[in-house]
Structure formats: structure tokens, C-alpha cells
Amino acid sequence: MQLVQNALIPVLLAVTGVYALYNGVDVFPTFLIGAKKGIKTAAEILPTMIGMLTVVHMLRASGAIDLAAAALAPIYQILGIPKECTALTLLKPISGGGGLALGSEIMQRCGPDSYAGRVAAVMLGSSETSLYTLSIYSGHLGLQRMRYAVIAVLCADVTAFAVSAALVRLYFPAV
């Protein structure tokens, strides 16, 4: 199985190259055009990425995430989200790495088989870094008005978090 995993990417690249050559595509110049577009895109989204990473670091360092989590804990309790996971629900839409670190913290503190640990694991797998992704795409496209998109992604995140807690309660009732 390890051999298949190690060979998968090179085989896919080789098959794609052979298929392109078979169809008369000049592979290397096409690759260079794609690489130039990729570098241009990376340069365009870099300021947005730096800004979002700065915001995430400032929110974590200032304790604002923890304060907001404490304020939202009663509302999340109604949704069945454990208080240990409230900070995760605030950080995950902004930062995947920050969310993963917080999820790991929850699992170390509460245990991976605890209700909070399981809910955190399902939340990490069932949600997206939606605000981060939205800011990158809208920054790249130059979108100015995203009011409804922000509301939509936040509703999707709250739904994912509430359903995560509900499914953990459903499939692990003894915890």
C-alpha cells in the first residue's frame, strides 16, 4: 500500500503528460503558462493572507477569542456544543492551523474519547476555514461587497458545528 501511495503522484503526472502529448498539446510551454499564472495569483493574494494571519495571531494573543467564547457558551449549550469547543467554533472559520492547534489542546485537556474531544474532532473535519477562504477569493477577485456571503458562510459554520455535536451525541451516547 505504501508503494502505491508513493507512486500515485508521479504516475498521475506521467499519465497527464502522455495524454497531453497524445492530444498534441505542447506540455512544457503549457506548464510554464500555468506556472506564471500561479505566481501571479500568489502575489495577488499574499497581502490578504498576511492580513488574515495577523488578525488570527492578534485575536489569539489578546484573549479576544476566549472572551467571545465565554460570552457565546450559553447559546452554544442550547445547540449541544460543549463549552470546551466554543473557542474552536470561533477560530476554525478564520484559521485552519489555529483550529487544529485548539482542537489538539481540547483533546489533550479533555481526552480524545471525551464528548468534547469527539465533538472537536468532528468539527475540525466537517467545517471549512470559511472566512479565510472568502477573504482570499474576494481579495483575489477584487470584490468589495460581501455582506451576504459572510452571513452565508457563518450560517454554514454554525450548522456544521451544531450538527457535529448532534451526531456525536447520536453515535456515542454513552460518552
Describe this protein's structure.
The chain is an all-alpha fold. The chain contains 8 helices and no strands. Helix content is 82%, strand content 0%. The protein is globular.
What characterizes the major β-sheet?
Answer: none
What fraction of residues sit in β-strands? Answer: under 5%
Low-confidence stretches: none
> Termini separation (Å)?
34 Å
E-strand count:
0
Work out the helicity level: over 70%
Radius of gyration: 21 Å
Mean pLDDT: 88
Briefly say what this structure is.
The protein has 175 residues and is mainly α. The protein has helices at 2-22, 27-62, 64-79, 86-91, 96-110, 115-126, 130-141, 147-171.
Write the layout of secondary structure elements.
Elements: H1 2-22, H2 27-62, H3 64-79, H4 86-91, H5 96-110, H6 115-126, H7 130-141, H8 147-171
Helix pairs in contact: 2-7, 5-6, 6-8
Give the key terms.
175 residues
